[in-house]
Model the fold of this input.
Amino acid sequence: MESRNPYAASQVPLIASEEPAPFSTDPETFEYGGFWRRVGSGLLDAIILIPLGVSLFVLLNYTRHAHLYYAFPSVAVYLFFYIWLVQRFGGTPGKRILSMRIAMADGSPVTTRAATLRYLPTQILQILSLTAMIQASFALGTEFESLGFLEKLRAQQMSAPAWNNFVTWGTYAWLAASALTLVANPRKRAIHDFIAGTIVLRTD
Done:
């Protein structure tokens, strides 16, 4: 019988592995993020982005061109928030806080292309809305600065181009379609998940 040296170094690694555990690609093991959990993550994301919206309201107190100055920084922040963070960490802060990750349909990590496609319809609607408000700002006179805050908002809406109504209704239709598709299929995929080829999984 081979003798064993009790003082010899252990052959068992102290750390199981430095490699991250692979994501499951077996659909039978998937647990999908449900409707209310995803709504909650959206609300958390909105709360995190409140300072961005506040900056627009602050600008409106000083200039009728607030949307013009707000446009480029806000688009950059949203691209970072909804594309880069999704590709890098598997979800927005709201989704990660509520123990969800965005993945490809087979469970593998989400790609940059998929993250971009997932956000693209919302991004287009947001850019169109900003464009309408920028166009409205150039139709306003210098008396805009003397108006009260609510009067400024009303003046901007009145000066917005007629096509902005289609953007507004298009936004409502997109939100409704996302909600309906989310609750209507067993894998809990919203319309943007079908476009991007993604799913939202629970990680808890």
